[in-house]
Specification:
Oligomer: single chain
Number of domains: 3
Number of helices: 8
Strand order of the largest sheet: 1-2-3-13-12-11-7-8-17
Radius of gyration: 21 Å
Number of strands: 23
Amino acid sequence: MKDVTIQASLYKRIFEIGGTLEVEVNIRENELEIPLDLLTGMAARKNKKRCFLFVSKVIGKHIPIFSRILSRGGYMLAHLFINKIENKSLPPHIFKGLTPDEVSPEAGHILLKEPTLFIGFAETATGLGHAVYSTFRGNTGFLHTTRDNIKELSPLFLFDEEHSHAPLHRCYTLEKDFMKYFSRIVLIDDEITTGRTALNLIRSIHEIFPKKHYIVMSLLDWRSPEDIERYSALEGELNIEIDTVSLISGNIRYEGTFSEDTDYNIPKKNSISVNINTIKFPLENNYIFTLIDTYGRERKYLYNGINGRFGIYGEDNQKISRLISQIASNLTEFRNSEKTLCLGCNEYIYIPAMIASEMDKNIYFQSATRSPIHSINKEGYAVKSAISFSNPFDDGIMNFVYNILPGQYEEIFFFLERDIDEEKKKAISEKFSSSGIKFLNFVVFC
């Protein structure tokens, strides 16, 4: 990676990913002066629509983090929101870095008077969206998009993420008037390249629940001048206002192709026997729905009502926080090793991350993902290893856990929304055994 100072932007970064592939990043705005390396790395992804990926160091997905970094990222975006949209300011002392001890005590106490709905994009920004939403109190709500096809529910709207490996998003609510309670909507993603996903969602929302004000929020914003003009054009077409908030904005260009021989090239430990344990927690706010999987097969599953897939309100936050604290306290009694990883699954990120942070502020957290990425064990590359297994609830989808090195952990707490059968638990444990995992605890609701 090389840094080059140029005019018309703060600075330029060139990422050399592999083979002849280079991605040039020109930073245009960085109000909080956050080093780009604190927010993201770079990797090559297995996707013909776009061959590279910004790998976030904040969202708890591909790279393990201290869980409070996710809260910290949400709070920094909330600060910019208050500053730019509400024309107010927060104490400047809160911005010193991205470490677990530097989450301001003011987090969770920012009052919003205007009814505001926060929507996080699946799957990577469900946790970030929830973290932003949890920073506020007052007349607020949270909803995240989902890839789940639920038989009993009709989506409020559908829209596409054009360069994604899994493009179709759905939005469900259990209250038909949920969207009507809010006068403005904040759309949250970890990174926007063209911004078309947000525009697709705005169009979908506006057809059914028209609002006057939309805010598109992201950690990174790489829209080109042409992309920015599309936002202005949609404002005029729909007679709406669209604002954007990001930690870093600029533009990117890339050239070349990715051609290295990669994947699963970390030396493995000898497979060991894994102790499998299942820890169940009863939850009042549960629903039974039928999931239609990739092959069209139907199976009933338990869904929890606290992670935002069906919509939650600001008044629910205290109850959710108490539940998180209770679960974290109970889980500490099951811990067998200091070398522990807490692992979320796909869209299920925020609740497990916050449980992890209360178990131990120095415990690492990340999530299984359906994003296929090339793994290369070399310095400066963001995805050094990969473990793959079938999605526990849809074997037509592969899941990946990245950056678990042999001997790095001895124990995993794997958080799932509901229980799975013993055969699937054993299959997953076998995948982790060659990385030195001795204890695999499945944490589920019932």
